Amino acid sequence: MAKKNALIFLLLGLGLFAARQLGVGQNAPIAVSERVTCPVLKVIDGDTFVCDLNHNNRPDYPQEKIRMLGIDTPESKYGLAKRLKHSVRAGQRYSSEATAFTTAALAKAKNHAVLVWDVSRQDPYGRSLAYVYPGAKAQPAKNTKTLNQALLEAGLAKSLFYDPNTALKAQFLAAEASAKSRRVGLWAR
Fold first, then answer.
1. Are 157 and 92 in contact (CB under 8 A)?
2. Given 88, 100, 137, 150, which residue has the most CB atoms within 10 angstroms?
3. Are the C-beta atoms of 117 and 64 separated by less than 8 Å?
4. Section 57-85 average pLDDT
5. In 3-state terms, what secondary structure has residue 36?
6. What's the pLDDT band for 100 if we cut at 50, 70, 90?
7. Are strands 63-68 and 71-72 parallel, antiparallel or unpaired?
8. Please, where are the H alpha helices in the chain?
């Protein structure tokens, strides 16, 4: 009996140690319905920007990079240089248009965004993953599109999904198909 109890405690201890090493519980997923409004400090490229999440007086949400879920915009020259670890002359085709689109949408919303998380809150690079609604209203109007979807419809992004963050996959695939059929942006030829 004593050996059995010792084995159970050992396994529990190893499980807790492994969970701590993997970060389990430190960045627990946030419910899909949770929305956070934040001021946008800087647009990095078409699908990434910096938000001041402490604006909400929540110390557990610092200023951080936000990566829009479900999409991938062309890399800016800065993003490419960082990834390739040397300077480049230009970004990928349509990168400046995607960045300008995101910048304009957020500027029109007085540089505020409503972030809605899916199942997993962060990517392996430490960025927050969110569906983004431009504006400061914590509850966007029912028919309001995400900025993510607007970029797809404009042909300035491709859909990109990683499980388990697939809540808006059907809408995003339809938006991308629409851009392709209209031959706009990335799909123009």
1. no
2. 150
3. no
4. 73
5. strand
6. very high
7. unpaired
8. 2-22, 77-84, 95-108, 147-153, 169-182
